[in-house]
Write a structure and sequence with these properties.
By secondary structure, this protein is α/β, with parallel strands linked by helices. The protein has 4 domains: 5-179, Rossmann fold, CATH 3.40.50.300; 185-246, Helicase, Ruva Protein, domain 3; 251-362, Zinc Finger, Delta Prime, domain 3 (Up-down Bundle); 383-402 and 410-428 and 437-496, no CATH class. 58% of the residues lie in helices and 7% in strands. The chain has 24 helices and 7 strands. The strands form 2 sheets. Strands 2-3-4-1-5 form a 5-stranded parallel sheet, covered by helices on one side. Helix 5 (102-113) links the parallel strand 2 (91-95) and strand 3. The two termini are 49 Å apart. Bound molecules: zinc ion (ZN). The site of zinc ion (ZN) has 9 residues, from helix 4.
Amino acid sequence: MSLALARKYRPKSFAGVAVQSHVSDTLRGAIARGRVAHGYLLCGPRGTGKTTLARVLAMALNCENKQSDGEPCGECVSCQRIWSGSSSLDVVEIDAASNRGVDDARELRERAMYAPSGEDRYKVYIVDEAHMLTREAWNALLKILEEPPPRVVFVFATTEPQKIAQSAAPVLSRLQRFDLKRIGIPEITRRLETVLGSEKIPATADALGMIARSADGSMRDALSLTDQVISIGEGELTADRVREALGLVPEDEYLGVIDLIATKKAGDIFETVRRLADGGVDFGVFLSGLGDMIRAQLAVVLNGRADGISPHALASLEAHRDEFAASDLLRMLQMLSTIEPQFRRSSQQQLLVEMLLVRFALLDRSVTIEEVLQTLGGGGTRGGEERTVARARPPQTDARPATRPASQSSPAQAPHASHSSHPAAKDLPAQPVLSPPTPPLRVTPSAEQSAIATQAAPSKSHEGPGWRAELDQTAASSARPRLTTEAVRQERLAMLRAQDPVLDAAVRELDLDLLD
Ligand SMILES: [Zn+2]
């Protein structure tokens, strides 16, 4: 079997880690000026080049033909040995995740006392997963770092620096810390192009985009995934091959779902989800892919650039441009991120996906002021009055349990109605149109009415005692139709739920799952 790409193309110089130039340039400069510190701490997410940089540093310190700018030659015996990770007397790699006892700390301390193998050589300890070291190990290391032996360098690599700060703060102050950044999709894509170019394997742009997105900021993962894709076929790397190798969902499925949401065909969601389930789709993968597609749709709606999708998908999203408001897409993305943590643990993933998609399809869309004014212009004032009545209802049902605690026993509908109005209330902040520019208030003192106001809505501070705040009817009219639809929907839902206890339980369950 051929060498894994991640190993074969591991950078041999600081310039090769250009993605982290803020770190590699500094280290190279330190080598060139002969001002290398005794201890370094490299922090950053996995696969961002921590160990690679540590090895390049070790190569540069020990290179027989070091260049004047601080770069190692990458060719001499010492460079080759260190680069390949094979036995080098002067470079010791320690995985703290597997060696973390007191004995190891003692051993480390004793071994660090040994001088490097030659006059002009450096002993470099590379400690991976350094946050796993015990307090005792850190104490031993602190003693070494307080009086470091000549030509001994420690490089600690960690994904969780805050844990080191907790257990070994004194050590931190003796280390030079560098923070490596998560690697972006364009940078990963460029690197994949270079690597595949050297391997003489052609690849389409959307195939590389898919691999880069799946790699989630890790160059090592990107190259391993590429290995995986290469292993299942010949010739050009295409989007289909990537999908097959990585178990990704075909792009058309996402476009189909976006289509169902745009056209509000909630009933067709079930068939789509069943087809995905039959196809053995991992719903976690599906949701993250759907998130990407909704993000792309958002970019299209905002006239931004939708990266990493095919021209075919772009055309489809362009066609839906006018059917989505940015705020609606943002709400969907927010709902997706809200259910994600519990989704992974859930044993009802298919059900959760169905419910989420149905919610997306039934989502009350934000309406622009222009559309509202157009509707009002055609509908006349009578419709407006009816809407006022409908709109006044939800606050009343909400207030009922507070003013009449005994109502639990009387009308069967009351508890349901108050239940159903809660999700709506939670949705409020996410819907810009539901909180329209505050209409002018007409404030009139009225003792009799203030009593009602404080009873019905004690929390509203602007309706203080002795004053009655009243929305100016003309100004408020623009917001009315939007609220009406919501109120009517809530009312219908309350009725349905009152009739069917199973539905009631299901809806309540869903609300808990999706909103809490
Ligand atoms: Zn060399």
